[in-house]
Input
Amino acid sequence: MLPNARTIVRIDAGSGSVGEINWLLEQDYQVMAKDYSGQRAHKLAFSVPNWIADPRIDGRQVGWVREPATAYVRAVRRIAVRCRKKNGQWGWGDHFDTLPGRCADRDQAVRTQDDG
Output
């Protein structure tokens, strides 16, 4: 395992372009990020087959994005998030990571979605 493969870089929205994220991926870093484009998140949300209610935040739902992530040089897993705004419309976001294996929250989301 390369030394960078054990380093996780967390990027908040607006802190990294696709090019900058791809540089990190090319250097074998693990990345956790929130996408910076609400329009892209809205588009990706159409590929989510099942939405799961967030038990901690009323009105918030999450789901696995099924559309392939072709912009990145390595495979990423993406989760779309939608929240009801005060005007009743949805607000959109998406998160992605390259972490190996499975984390507990992601495992729960998969089990819930596969059961539903």
